[in-house]
Amino acid sequence: MADDKTTVVETGGGAGTVIAVVAGIIAILVVAYFLFGQSLLNGDTKKIDADIKVESK
Fold first, then answer.
1. What count of other Cβ atoms lies within 10 Å of the Cβ of residue 14?
2. How far, in Å, CA of 34 to CA of 41, rounded?
3. Which one has a higher pLDDT value, 42 or 54?
């Protein structure tokens, strides 16, 4: 008699994982746009007046 061995491999959430990754990337891009992009796209630059004195011996 031969023993039959069956291995069942279940993979779940393939499409759900892809959707979650894409949604995460979009969320990161939206946050980065609101933090950095608006002032850059509007041309709203800020002038920084720095008085730096360097002394060398």
1. 8
2. 11
3. 54
- Confidence (pTM): 0.47
Structure tokens at 35: 């933090």
Q: Which residues contact 46 (CB under 8 A, 6 or more apart)?
A: 39
Three-state SS for 13? coil
- Rounded to an integer, what distance in angstroms lies between the CA atom of residue 43 and that of residue 55? 36
Helix, strand counts (H, E) of the chain: 2, 0
Q: How far apart are CA 45 and CA 41, in angstroms?
A: 10
- Decide if pLDDT at 12 tops 70: no
| C-alpha R_g of the chain | 28
Q: Which structure tokens are listed for 7? A: 């291995």
